[in-house]
Amino acid sequence: MTSLPGAPAARGGIDLGGTKIEAVVVDANNKLIGSARRPTPTAGGPPDVAAALAAAVTEAAETAGVQPAALIGVGVGSPGVVDPDTGAVSSARNLPNWEGRYELASELSSRLGTPVSVGNDVQVATNAEFELGAARPYKSVLGVFWGTGVGGGLILDGKPWVGRGGAGEIGHVVVEIDGARCGCGRRGCMEAYAGRGQLEERARRRVEKGRKTELFKLMESHGRARLTSSIWARALDRDDKLATELIDGAVRALGAGIASAVNVLDVEAVIIGGGLGIRFGEPFAQRLAREMHPHIFNDQPPPDVHVAALGDLGGAIGASLLARTW
Amino acid sequence: MTSLPGAPAARGGIDLGGTKIEAVVVDANNKLIGSARRPTPTAGGPPDVAAALAAAVTEAAETAGVQPAALIGVGVGSPGVVDPDTGAVSSARNLPNWEGRYELASELSSRLGTPVSVGNDVQVATNAEFELGAARPYKSVLGVFWGTGVGGGLILDGKPWVGRGGAGEIGHVVVEIDGARCGCGRRGCMEAYAGRGQLEERARRRVEKGRKTELFKLMESHGRARLTSSIWARALDRDDKLATELIDGAVRALGAGIASAVNVLDVEAVIIGGGLGIRFGEPFAQRLAREMHPHIFNDQPPPDVHVAALGDLGGAIGASLLARTW
Lengths: 326, 326
Description:
Chain A contains ten helices and twelve strands. Chain A has about 325 residues and is an alpha/beta fold. In chain A, helix 1 (about 45-65) packs across helix 2, helix 7 (about 230-235) packs across helix 9 and helix 8 crosses helix 9 (about 275-290). The longest helix of chain A has 25 residues, at about 240-265. Residues about 1-5 of chain A have low confidence and may be disordered. Chains A and B meet through strand 9 and helix 8 of A and strand 9 and helix 8 of B.
């Protein structure tokens, strides 16, 4: 890649989440030079999502003083099943009417006038931590992104490991045979106890049965429609009993599930990201390490556990790394 | 490697198990040309085990018409923690008085007059299936060896994956938080429900509480001191209720635990070996695949499941592959 004088070799990166779209523009040294955020469309279909992605990266490029067509490329981290060759996305169940296959890379590329590459959202966030963030000192890493769901990404021997395309589904490690029903329809998955979506459902059911909690009052007083990561953090700060109980259960499930993956892979480090992981921060990461420890087989020493260093923008920055090959 | 006329470039391989030592001699094409078996010493210490290993491979070499010193090398698959550089073995808890470190490779090499290399027993058995057995068609494989314990080995992108030296501990994937006590001292491990050692303990406790079973009568009438794989198979053939119940529980735990590992790694195939895995054979492997299926996230299609093709000698043949580098 050559960078002409005056041409900043800027790249775009987009993190396509179930609730929001985060777009960044970085320079050749991966330094952030622009960003934008907008809500993910809740109606319509894949073309509407593609339009929102184009608008977000265009806005981020404007804040960086670059034309979108002048970007050397744009990377997208997407949920669902991503075809790495074509950049098509299928089964993105958190997005509106996105069960089938949609040629996201080529559609977005023609809107923007620059090449577009698409990767799995959690894997690109793990790559970002490996190249630029908390996982830089290591060659084998498990990234765990704890938010609405619990996703995982792997770096083994310095390279991403995606298996047949579906690796890293740590949220669906079984921690209780015939246990709680997960959002995926299966039983006993770690995510059934730890995912923010399932935690909210469980809190609602307990309230219906008469349990008291500040959770939903905090949600309303902060003008939210969902129990966001910061609502959970506020409730814990107030020693809300139900919130404490549910997060304790989540940490127990995360400890067992992550330790199971570590026992199979024996990685050097575990990086905790995602909305809840980042909101709770380093003290929580150390609590999680203690919760994992009794289950870890090769504990001489156990793997290091750190919070993702790139924060909320890690997904978008990781996506921008996909755009380096042009 | 050059093979002089009359010198068959024969190699030795030894599988060092908790109850028996299996030794083979193979030619340059990995064809079996000699074998021997003897019990693992139950008293003494590492030097006594080394003497028994030397005697076993000497006997195998004799059946092949080769002097031990004429072998181009000998490989050993060992339990415990193996130092791949020196061939020292530590913490081999199933072997007599083998808590500390013992220089197995150099000790055995001076006894035999030929180079000796040592690897992890389960990983060499997985390598054997990958190079010569049921996993030949695949590039990513999880080997599961179901016997006294449950061990695992990994091939990722055509190469063994050992992590920091302790990968593949699939027996200690957590399938029930705060569940049954495992032989390792932890709780809820897959091995606590599926390992032959734990199954026997559970059977004994049930009998003490008055449960009826043919298991221990069969053990005595076949002159065994333990519930071996073939005793379990015979009890199942007779529809023994306790044996059926315990093996059902083992299969449920194996299904959940192996599926958890598959959800993280998304390998192409799972190979089932070990005493129980081989004794129960292909119908059991297909039953296990059905038990895994409800937990598998990327099930389009699920990974293939096969029985180890090299049978009881897979560990020793895999060990002989370690001796190829001279």
